[in-house]
Amino acid sequence: MTPWHVIVSIGLGDCLCCLRSLLPLLHTEPGSTPFRREELKQRDTQLKQTILELEHELEETKRKCSQLSTELQVRKSQQQLPYM
Question: What is the pLDDT of residue 84?
Answer without folding.
Answer: 59
